[in-house]
Design goal:
globular; binds zinc ion; 1 helix; 8-stranded mixed beta sheet; Metal Binding Protein, Guanine Nucleotide Exchange Factor, Chain A; 3-stranded antiparallel beta sheet
């Protein structure tokens, strides 16, 4: 058994509690994203997104979803609680093995601190961007499959 497999699961829920989820493994990576789409979801701020292997994720409760096309042409599916509206997940048609989780929905947001900031060229002038983290001004290269 791997050390990863024996780690405590990372759990979370929407604001109202109708949707809960658990991931058996730590995230592959966590990033703050300042793309313009994320500013709509994040009340003007960057979203903070932990990317997990889809196979390690368990979700309970009904989700609603909104599909849109990214600048790259890839179809994105963003899922949220239909009762309270909390944004929970994002999935890309081009990388179905991964699921993006909004870190604000984790029971312990300290479990997934961001290690990079992306899409800084879309950030407003007043954005607070951690100077200690590496930055990418647009979309970073795709993650290699874990
Ligand atoms: Zn809810
Ligand atoms: Zn974004």
């Amino acid at each position: 058994m791997s050390a990863q497999g024996s780690a405590a699961p990372i759990t979370g829920r929407c604001f109202c509690g109708a949707v809960t989820f658990a991931c058996a493994e730590p995230p592959v990576i966590t990033r703050a994203c300042w793309c313009r789409d994320c500013q709509y979801l994040g009340a003007g701020n960057a979203t903070v997104n932990a990317i997990f292997r889809r196979d390690a994720m368990t979700v309970r409760g009904a989700l609603a979803a909104y599909a849109s096309r990214a600048d790259s042409g890839t179809e994105m599916r963003r899922s949220f609680c239909p009762r309270c509206g909390t944004q929970l997940f994002s999935e890309s048609a081009s990388r179905p093995q991964l699921i993006v989780v909004r870190v604000g929905a984790l029971d312990d947001p300290n479990a997934a601190p961001p290690s990079a900031t992306i899409w800084t060229r879309s950030a407003p002038r007043w954005a607070c961007i951690d100077p200690a983290l590496p930055r990418t001004d647009g979309q970073p290269p795709p993650l290699t499959s874990p």
